[in-house]
Amino acid sequence: MNRFGNIFTLTSFGESHGPALGGVIDGVPSGFVIDTERIQQEADRRRPGSTRLGTGRREPDRVELLSGIHERVTLGSPIGFIIRNTDHHPADYTEMQRLYRPSHADYTYEAKYGLRDWRGGGRSSARETTSRIVAGAVARQILEAASDIRIYAYTSAIGRATLPEGTEPDYTYIYKSSVRCPVSGAAEQSMISEIEEARRQGDSVGGAVSCIISGVPAGLGEPLAGKLQAMLGAAILSIPAVKGWEYGMGMHAARARGSEVADLFEPETTPLRTLTNHSGGIQGGISNGADIYFRVAFKPAPTMMRDLPAVDRDGHAATLHGKGRHDPCVVPRAVSVVEAMTCMTMLDALLLHRAGQLRELR
Amino acid sequence: MNRFGNIFTLTSFGESHGPALGGVIDGVPSGFVIDTERIQQEADRRRPGSTRLGTGRREPDRVELLSGIHERVTLGSPIGFIIRNTDHHPADYTEMQRLYRPSHADYTYEAKYGLRDWRGGGRSSARETTSRIVAGAVARQILEAASDIRIYAYTSAIGRATLPEGTEPDYTYIYKSSVRCPVSGAAEQSMISEIEEARRQGDSVGGAVSCIISGVPAGLGEPLAGKLQAMLGAAILSIPAVKGWEYGMGMHAARARGSEVADLFEPETTPLRTLTNHSGGIQGGISNGADIYFRVAFKPAPTMMRDLPAVDRDGHAATLHGKGRHDPCVVPRAVSVVEAMTCMTMLDALLLHRAGQLRELR
Amino acid sequence: MNRFGNIFTLTSFGESHGPALGGVIDGVPSGFVIDTERIQQEADRRRPGSTRLGTGRREPDRVELLSGIHERVTLGSPIGFIIRNTDHHPADYTEMQRLYRPSHADYTYEAKYGLRDWRGGGRSSARETTSRIVAGAVARQILEAASDIRIYAYTSAIGRATLPEGTEPDYTYIYKSSVRCPVSGAAEQSMISEIEEARRQGDSVGGAVSCIISGVPAGLGEPLAGKLQAMLGAAILSIPAVKGWEYGMGMHAARARGSEVADLFEPETTPLRTLTNHSGGIQGGISNGADIYFRVAFKPAPTMMRDLPAVDRDGHAATLHGKGRHDPCVVPRAVSVVEAMTCMTMLDALLLHRAGQLRELR
Amino acid sequence: MNRFGNIFTLTSFGESHGPALGGVIDGVPSGFVIDTERIQQEADRRRPGSTRLGTGRREPDRVELLSGIHERVTLGSPIGFIIRNTDHHPADYTEMQRLYRPSHADYTYEAKYGLRDWRGGGRSSARETTSRIVAGAVARQILEAASDIRIYAYTSAIGRATLPEGTEPDYTYIYKSSVRCPVSGAAEQSMISEIEEARRQGDSVGGAVSCIISGVPAGLGEPLAGKLQAMLGAAILSIPAVKGWEYGMGMHAARARGSEVADLFEPETTPLRTLTNHSGGIQGGISNGADIYFRVAFKPAPTMMRDLPAVDRDGHAATLHGKGRHDPCVVPRAVSVVEAMTCMTMLDALLLHRAGQLRELR
Fold first, then answer.
1. Which residues are paired to A308 by β-bridges?
2. Beta strand A317-320 pairing with A308-312
3. Mutate to test the interface with D, among A4, A9, A72, A77 (most CBs of D within 10 A)
4. pTM over 0.90
5. Mind listing the pLDDT tens digit for each residue in C66-81?
6. Which of C52, C327, C343 is nearest to C175 (CA)?
7. pLDDT tens, residue by residue, C86-111
8. Chain A residue with the nearest C-alpha to that of B124
């Protein structure tokens, strides 16, 4: 179950404090030029130290590609890769061996497996997402070469600071912003303030990420279990700390009237367009050519800089000392992960769709 | 891609106006007594005519089980089943052959497949969900016999009528309520009023369904792609008209502080409990023994009783005449579908977990 | 695990003496004209009464297609189908309720599932293969329309009667021959004699089926687990009574020298051909454009017309009375099943290959 | 498609002359002690230089385990591993860049992917099987701890030298024998002579490997697509150079009479045994508790020490100079690969079976 996707797949491995993490990307079409520098850049963006506001930890996260690419071109064979873990500080984690941290996976992993890797979050650590970034970066380059599909995610809320309705995102600004806000100015400043206030208080804060997928041809997605929203939702809900996913009109749909939200077609357009896009670019599980957009909510990290009541493995009360270096807000770093999962899912949908288009042959 | 699940799976088939729909339920453990009457009852609940407020269509939806059960007991072999379509009214749908209805899958299916079954919604019709009800009803009976897991879904909002925060649901009332409201009284009346007002106006209205899963042992769910929330979210997002899915604190997580929402353990409890349940019963993708709860938003049906601007297959403006018999609110009927998908997913998670528990053997 | 294939898949159901058997064919490309009469004809060929030499049982095996095809054209949605069981004779089988027949699946099914459907072979009966014939017939028609791939299987041995080395098969004769021998004359007569002798003695006899796949483009098959020979072998080894599968030079490879069996290329040919075809049309798991050919061995049916020592469910000695109507040789009827599995596998390989050919888009 | 298995899975990667090969083993049950030295030993056995008669190449093949095991115990998380390629000699292979070797995958890979890694066999090289050895070694240790299942493969034929019918294999001798013959003496000597003769002549020779699986409980294997023989056959047919697979009475079944080969039960045995084992331990796809045995034929390697006519990429005649270091017989080294694939498959079958055994819970 450590595998994402149907045709374009990532099978990943690695504990946060083991020797390395990595994965195998399979279903990579042959003949695509891959810029390995861009893969490294995308991995760098997710690093804890990559935003001014994040934790002080500096993990180099050097991506080592081991197969599947020869003379810069994909061979059609799987791309194996590893990223060494270099920043072990087991000393910071010794008390974790006997404690269950609140709202962490310590207890549930131990309930499931009978034991756990207590050196950090093991497999449940967000560090695992680095492998997804690598696979997403490969998918993005193939999408760019083979289609018009482009994918941008950005922070749309941190705590009480929310991007005003109707803000036009500037995609070139996202990675210039320490919080991955797509516009400079007041909204970005409020987001930064939310994080800094949480940090001063030894607390953490949640947020939301929005994502826009443009250039999608009509026809991607499969009926039923393969509906595009189910594939995208499952991919995003597998990211640590996500508590909800909505697309198009989203949770507001519950309050809406059909007459307000039907997307009427614009007659005489080729390909056919709609006048509005309440649907979020998907009808019946299949893309209609309009932009796909969705929104994800992240909970605040349960690890904080303050002491927390915990229990030990025998159920006795204990105290978790907040001495580690913890990021007060995971959202800015999660933006890359949302993008990566979306890139992987859209390429997978494109390949699935192609597999069914046999009639072209005749 | 017409297949749900990993070990306990449903592969379904059927167009809304073809001869029949049905499916194959595979991965059914052997030796379980199945009450086939209960399966039929659950299918009846989803029928269009099953709620006082729904459409006048009466489809008997007789479930015919064809294999996998012998002398009332599961054999371990797949359960094949069909439900004949008896209420064909192709005359109602003739204009659909040349029209694309707004916010329907007519255009996207044709973009994908180059043709479509224009007799109704084809594969994208909500009628497809009857097969899910059957598989869910089988899963529910196995869950009841093999575990303490119990699953209840109910309507928590219709349009502006929302179940008040903190309402204690009465599970015995849900299917007595025509709107599947879990309490009688003002809230239920407001929900009914929302639907009746929409009907009077020839309009439709959205809503929300909540679901509670109790009796879950700690340890269900797999890391990464198999996280319990990703499995549940994907299952629910595949239901027609769903626009968003959230669990635990849900979309509100974006505004929260870590100190407010960490679920502290209650020391000296066996199995270990938490004092609060903001997490919604899942940590790191794995159940922690607390109740799992989630909420789903449904959009208002795009088919209404009023005329709507549409386009024909050549992109020319046309009018869709609202003469059919359409349900002003799909939410009450969707409650059963949410329950069914949840039953299937929880049994699948239970079987997946068991597959990995080899150490018990030693 | 009642599912065959990766993209073009059959999920089947049905016990031999339950109400019906059937399945769901998923991954069917849209826009293909399907001749449903031909599907029925292929199902008829497998029937017990279809060959002069077979059992006297006459099961009509009427195939009822329930979805996925509209106005004779595939919709891209799954094809559900059923075949009613009409020839129940539970009386013939009552002793089976308490007996385990030698070399049957009675004991193993009960060991696995704790119970079994004792009315005939249940799920292990060869009757299950009727569903495969239906899916194979659909696959064949799509292959014929979309490619040059053509598939012919025929009986190459029955007991001691073996088709002489170098016999040129006449594909038009196969289904004229009661034993599915591809040539008339002495070889066919010997095969018939083997069966008739076995019948006279109340015994059964084994045999072999050969299969030739022509018109295969170079490039089908995937490396490693998806090697074309692994896909074909797995498909064929799942047919009841098969004990071995070999392709190209087959089991004789063990005795061969590399210098004798290397298939040298024929220079200046386009597409490139080889002078010989010891390899059987596959190199490194991928088709090279030459004919693929393989051979399958079937064991003699363990159910005979004579009394056999058996045991009852408590392990006590018992006698199985050979009073049923049993086919002395399953091989002639198995020819259609080998063809069907091969058709399904080759279409699946074609679709898998297409899924990876994204570079064509650019 | 670079993935083996259903629950216990190996997803592998790596070209023969790229930086490394490796894989991800997923579905590993938690809590098992793993002896990593034994994994290395099994990998060493497959090395080209591991048998006296093999090629002179010495590839250290150091297995580096990167995750999934902590303090010698499996965590339940995936085991990622790599093996660096250290013995690059691209100079030996430069002519391969423009040549298609006869009976190799050069042409078919290029036909499929439009390009290939010409530095050696790329993904089609037998070197790929090292990853399978690692996964098989993990599976074997889990099988040993959790079941009585034991798996032994050995060379049963090399060219004309065949192990006499009825030879009792001495499992402790297999890896002492340079040809993996299970008995010392005349048979082993003949096998060695076959290889040495082929080497002297610059030729190569084929052979056969037999495998015995003992201690299998009745009930493993799934009906239809998951039949144990189909799972085993597919696993073995994916090994490079395999041309055929047979189990139990095998290809001889074609000549047999039912009365000769029915495996009669031995009354009053618990668990129930059969007097003979023509079936090879499997009935209806499910193990019956008797030993499973099968036999595999390997073709002679198409790369020899002599010059061979080849063609270049434009189809012009060319000569392949036999200057490399080539193994005259792959069979002794293939024995470990057959064992590894069998270990993986049997553990997978055990886990699949467990997933369905829910009734135990009640």
1. A320
2. antiparallel
3. A77
4. yes
5. 999 999 999 999 999 9
6. C52
7. 865 555 566 777 889 899 999 999 99
8. A284
